[in-house]
Amino acid sequence: MTTPAAPQDDSGVLLSVRNLSLRFGGVLAVNDVSFDVRSGEVFTLIGPNGAGKTTMFNLISRIYRPSTGSIAYAGPDGAMLQLTRQQPHMVAGLGIARTFQNIELFEHASVLHNLLIGRHRCRETGLWADLLFTRRVRAAEMRAREKVEQVIDFLDLQHCRDQLVAGLPYGVRKVVELARALCTEPRLLLLDEPSSGLNVEETDDMAFWIQDIQQALGITVLMVEHDMALVSRVSDRVLAMNHGQVLAMGSPREVQSHPGVIEAYLGRADTASDTSGPLRRPPASPGARTSA
Ligand SMILES: Nc1ncnc2c1ncn2[C@@H]1O[C@H](COP(=O)(O)OP(=O)(O)OP(=O)(O)O)[C@@H](O)[C@H]1O
Ligand SMILES: [Mg+2]
What's the CA gap between 58 and 100, in Å, rounded? Predict the structure, then answer.
């Protein structure tokens, strides 16, 4: 008996979230959210503190299991698979990598070792082969080293490759975390507040890296971000959330001028006339240097 083939995706959709909800006790952190991320785009989630953005990332990376709803993902062979049925440790192998709102690195290891450890998350060989250091393991090790060196060059990290992460400035650690995610050769990269805690110049560099990751490496990016100038600069489409629900979805300009979005950020829609520029980061937002 042959197994029926999984449905193939021909719509260009890489990730499809449908009616997703997650409840923590009395808090509905994500409430009936649906959206698609198309292959090759930068898709950004915005919303005030507590809107449910990081929870959405945690659902996609399988840290949490949804209360209801589904997440479909076009696997490496193009077949749509249900992420909710995958084991959490399989997610990296499917080509999904992420960075965290508060940097998660091995502080007392060098940049190079952090990247190699990150790379080993998508190991291709088994325990026995590793122990015997077979030819296949040696080839995989060579590929890992090559990839890590490529990423170090791509993100200009040569100057600190052998330094301990603990001694690096916050802005450089942020790039190292991005590098670690890239070392896994993702097809979908989740960035949770890539500019938080960065100064203007570092934020400008980050915008450049994100555009390069999309355009030069062809990686699809799903981002959470509060800096609306950065959002406008790099995003193809934006989804605004509040209290776990979708408020608006569309181009950066459409979403930032949506009355419901302005009200969620500023408290009153009629203050919109005060903001000729993009929405500002909400005042109480975490993620500054001190929170890392
Ligand atoms: N593990 C958890 N247990 C209980 N409640 C949680 C948990 N994680 C998140 N929440 C709650 O879910 C809601 C959404 O939180 P989430 O971290 O997703 O917000 P966010 O949009 O990322 O906010 P921010 O911009 O501040 O990072 C909040 O009310 C939060 O307190
Ligand atoms: Mg968050």
Answer: 10
